[in-house]
Amino acid sequence: MASTSDIRNGLCIRYNHDIYKITEFLHVKPGKGPAFVRTKMKSVTTGKVLDNTFSAGHKIEDVRVETHKFQYLYHDGEFFHFMNQEDYTQIRLTEAALDRPDLLKEGEVVTVLINTEDNMPLSVDMPASVVLEVTHADPGVKGNTATNATKPATVETGAEVNVPLFINEGDKIRIETEKGTYKERVKE
Question: Which UniProt keywords apply (predicted)?
Answer without folding.
Answer: Cytoplasm, Elongation factor, Protein biosynthesis
